[in-house]
Amino acid sequence: MKRKIIYAALLAPALMLTSCKEDFIDRPSLSGTTTGNYYNSAEQVRAATSTLYSGLPWRNYESRAQDAIGDVMGGNMFTYTDTEYLNFTVSAASERVGAAWGAFYKIIGYSNVMLKTFEEKKAAGGDASYLDPAIAEAHFIRGMLYFYIARTWGAAPIITDPGATALSGDFNIPRYLQKDVLRFALEELQLAEKNLPESDVPGRVTKYSAKGMMAKLYLYNKDYANAKAKAEEVINSGKYTLVSDYEGMFTKMSMNNNAESLFSIQHQFAQDPWGTGNIKNPDRGAGALRTSEADAWEMYVPSIDMLKEYEFGDLRRKWSVMEQGWTKPTWKPQRANAPVYNAFMANGFKYDTLQPTNDGGSLSPTRANIVKYFAGPGKSFGGEPVLGQNSGNNVVLLRYADILLIYAEAVLGANASTSDTKALDALNQVRRRAGLNPKTSITLDDILHERRVEFAFEGDYWYDIQRQGFAKAKAIIEKQNRGTVTAATYLTNFTQDKMFLPIPAGEIIQDPELGKEPVPYYK
């Protein structure tokens, strides 16, 4: 705990990277010794806050932990690797638990340092016109992360001034009640909303990013009136729209920071430093698409239950999933010394579950693979540029489709159903893009279905299940087929203690207070 949370903030300056090719990712040191002669221009300050968007500090969450927690636990993915998430037997020693915890508190550490540094600079006469928006960016990231922490672990530590904690020598930091962690997250997002600009360059958060994240938090808290109000502000702004190329949002670099994105982790097409590029590619790609340019080992595949969730004619199925009959004529992967494979792929990629795997066939445990965030077999073979495990696609954490569905659910509220015109329009916009007929009345189950298929493999569905409360969560989980095409599997061990993940064991060893009952943060 002391090292991973407290010192993550103190060491943040030393961990900042040297500049990269793109200005948005350039990041200077945040060392206190430079405060007096640095951060004297908007460019210098924005170069510093760009760190908060970079894939580097987010890497240990978005690479596998996001999948294991959001989609394997949620029943959307099958895996032979993270079986403890599939079976709800997650221990405090789990690698994914530690990775997500470490990533979240590391980025919070960055935010803490920036807030303190920029506030001190402002107090010393620095220009508020560019310091205030930078402070607001840090508040947004800190608020968003505490929202993620509250949903993942429930009760958790809140760290805002690691320097003061280190100087005090008291590292016995308790867990705070989940409702207080959520309140703190909301207050951070409110501060962000106040000082973020109405608009900015693509990729930077704005007032509407904060409003959208607040709407999501309000919905989690079942504060339907505020969720509706904030979602409506985003909708009425006219700044966002659903993009027509759903698949391209996740697979094409040219669509990074598109008109649907409210917040995305920013990636560069590079291998070094590790995490600069998007490294989801190999974990999702069909092994038949592995080439000299692109790795693909299909660690995570669509679950049987997820495949059954799609309605007939839902275009999101082919935009999200590869299965028998799925084709990509522009992809023409080739391999050295593989004449049968090369002949099979010569006229374009065909997903085939009958062809031998060495000759280009695909035989995953569920007979399907994931399209989202798989960039293809490499540029030389008709796909997007790929360097081994790395692509240049951003990872989207909040998009306009979410705002529309939040609005529809907020209008529904605690009612059994609604035929409200605006709520129906919001949900039917999402359905129309998917090629589906509009609904004339909607229930909560309708909305949860729509959320599941719309955000499949984006790390969100577990939280949608969790926020239903234990009884409904148990009913949802125990109905899911979590097995393979040859062995259906249904869980019977879902208990109340499975609703949140355990705090990493190493953290409790260093700070025994984390193993105790949570306490109030607000007095």
From TrEMBL:
Keywords for the protein's UniProt record, in alphabetical order: Cell outer membrane, Membrane, Signal
Family, as annotated = Belongs to the SusD family.
Q: Which CDD domains match?
A: SusD
Regions that span the bilayer: none
Q: Which SUPFAM superfamilies match?
A: TPR-like (SSF48452)
Localisation per UniProt entry? Cell outer membrane
Q: Show where the RagB/SusD domain sits.
A: 305-516
Supply the name of the protein: RagB/SusD family nutrient uptake outer membrane protein
Q: What is the lineage of its organism?
A: Bacteria, Pseudomonadati, Bacteroidota, Cytophagia, Cytophagales
Q: Please state every residue range assigned to the domain named SusD-like N-terminal.
A: 83-219
Task: Kindly list the GO CC terms recorded for this protein.
Answer: cell outer membrane
Report the InterPro entries cross-referenced here.
SusD-like_N, SusD_RagB_dom, TPR-like_helical_dom_sf
